[in-house]
Each structure stands twice: as C-alpha cells, then as structure tokens.
Specification:
CATH superfamily of the largest domain: MoaB/Mog-like domain
CATH architecture of the largest domain: 3-Layer(aba) Sandwich
Number of helices: 14
Shape: elongated
CATH topology of the largest domain: Molybdenum Cofactor Biosythetic Enzyme, Chain A
Radius of gyration: 27 Å
Largest sheet: 6 strands, mixed
Strand order of the largest sheet: 2-1-3-8-7-6
CATH class of the largest domain: Alpha Beta
Helix content: 40-55%
Length: about 425
Amino acid sequence: MMQAEIITIGTELLLGQIVDTNAAYLAKKLAALGVNVFRSTTIGDNQDRIANAIRRALDDCDIVITSGGIGPTVDDKTRQAVAAATGRNLVFDQSLLDDIKAFFEKRGLVLGENNPRQAFIPQDATAIRNPVGTAPGFIVEQGHRYVISLPGVPRELYYLMEHSVLPFIQREFGLETVINMRVLRTAGTGESNIDRLVADLEESDNPTVGLSAYPGAVDIRVTAKAKDSITAQQLLDDMETQLRDRLGDMIYGLDDVTIESVVVNMLLERGLNLVILETNTGGTLACRLTAAPRGFEVLGGTLIASLSKAADYLLKTSHHSHSVSAETAEILADKIREIAGAGIGMAIVGDEDPNMGPYGSVAGNTYFGLSCQDLSQIEHIQLGGISGEGRTRIINSGLSILRNWLLKEHPIS
C-alpha cells in the first residue's frame, strides 16, 4: 500500500492561531485513493526544520505533501526547504510569473514587489498552475518518490488537489483500489446506545463501520474498498440499508448535512415558523438555525433571557413561582408562541450555573417545551450550565427533539 506523509507548515499553526483543517482534508482525500497516511507533521516557518522533516518523510514514504510556505513573503520557506532537502537549486519560471501577473491584472490589482518570488521552484520540478490564487504548487521527483508542495490557503489547496494532484497520484502509481466513505449522522442519542444497536455491523471488514462521538451527536462512518466506484457505492448502499433498519429515524442525514438544516427544511415543507426562548444556551439555537440556508424564513422570533427575566416579560409574574421544571417549559413555550403568533413555540429552560455542564460539579437540568395549537410536549435532559460544550450538547438534543416532534405530530402525507 502506498505510504504518504502530510507536512503542514506555518508557525501560526503551532501557536494555535489557526486550526489546521488542511491535514484532515488531505488525509481524507488520500485515503479515498487507497493511500495510507503514515504520519502527519506540523512545522514552523524554519527552513532547516522543514528540510529535515522532508528528508525524514522521503525515507519513510512514497509521497510527501506539504501545505503552506509558498507565498510571497520572507517567512515563506517551503520552496527553499524542498530544494535543500532534494539537493537542488531554485530556478525562475517566467510562465509562472506571467500567470501571477494575469491573476492580478484580471482583478484590477497591482503586482506586489515580492510576488515574483512565487515564480521560483526547485530545478526540474513540475509546476502546478494555480488559477484560483497566486501561489503555484510544484512536484519534485526524488528517486521514484515525490514531494508535492501546495499553498496553505484552503480554497487554493482544495482546487489544486482535486484538479491536479489526485489525478497525478492515481496516474503515476496506477492505483486501482477505490475507497469511498459515507457518514450517517445522528443526534440526541449517545454513542453507547448506537453501539448497542449496531455492534455486530462494526465487526464488518468491508465496508468497515466506525463511530465518532461529539457533544449530543454521533456520526457513523462507513468505508468501502473496491476496484471501482460503482462497486464501492453498492457496498455503502447495502450497509446503509442495514444501519437504517436498526436505527430508523435516529439518522437525520448523510455526510455534511447538519441537523439544523434538516429542521429548517422540515419547517419549510410544513409551512410552519418557529419562535424560541433560550434561558441557558445564549442564543445558540437561533444562531445555528439562521446560519442554515433559508433559516431566517422559518424563525419567527427569539428571546434570549434568564428564566427570571423571561418569566417576568412573558408572564408578568415573579420568577419565584417559576423554577426550572417541565411545567415552566410548557407554560413558556405556549406563551411565547401565543405572543409571537407563530406556528410553533419552543422554550429551552435550564439551570444557568456556569459550574454545571459536562465539566462542572453538578449535572443540572434542561427542559424543552414545544407548543403548537392544542399540542404540547416536554422533554428533559440531565444537563445544565452555560459552558460551550454544554450548550452544544443541549442544542443538538433540542434540535433532535424538535425534528422527532415534527415527524410524529406534523407528518407529510
């Protein structure tokens, strides 16, 4: 099996100022070709360290992919490091400079004094032209092994991988095995519960089935290997059918689909709008819904307030008579729906102590009240507080509860 190392370059990555999404993307794309990622390394903007990392990677791997460090500034050291690691000089490529000039002219911009640096690549390297940016990549062959250097800007890296690098790897190494992946997404249930229902399927060799848990959500990752994409997709289809037979409506979508986008689409299909009260989640539900496509069309209003202020505003009563409880959630959901004139009212009523939550000393409680005309429903989870992870878990649970309620009480005929 082909081996690859990913080297992401940039001091900002080591300082935690930027999240390294490129390594995850590259690993996923290489796996889909049947290339094993032997190691992933992050290096700061230091030429000697980058060169040493490349030398080590060439000793262990068939393919080395670097990300970052080929921009126009002084601290962009990858070109020099690749040249040093492979015993080459940097050479100027006029055609690359012409591409860079054309990129600037097309956008009415002036070429910077330092941009011509990007037209230098290691001697005998194959240039990877970059129509979506100013940093061309390049490929260096070293004893039947390859160093592939790409820009660190994700949009540019993705484009060059899809249009140049992946076809090159597949062609150069004659890769026949296709690896396809599908992710089935669930929310509102725990990893242990999912595992209990599909444990025997997790023993499958091809396709493989794995679970990834997040706050209030579990992804089921199915990976199939075959000689062609059609066969791989059939393997995925067969396993998906088995998983859906076991899990049913627990699965809300596939791959990159979010549960908030699913809920928004369900509300649109039913011609319903939603008004929300959040007492211990800081408006997180409203933010996630409105971030989904057409989310603003279904959100009829939102109130973000402590329980005492919400009770005073909506019910004109003292908070002493309204504790964190199922009854309070039901009353407030009905009242906010009535005031807003919305199709559905949803109240999230929970303990607000910041010491509560997944890392706090007290579990706390959160109640979800749902109201629609003569229908109401209350759900409860043992989690309170206002921590970041706590909020995520509460909101994922709430979205799952709302989705299930729409499926049950507002089915589409």
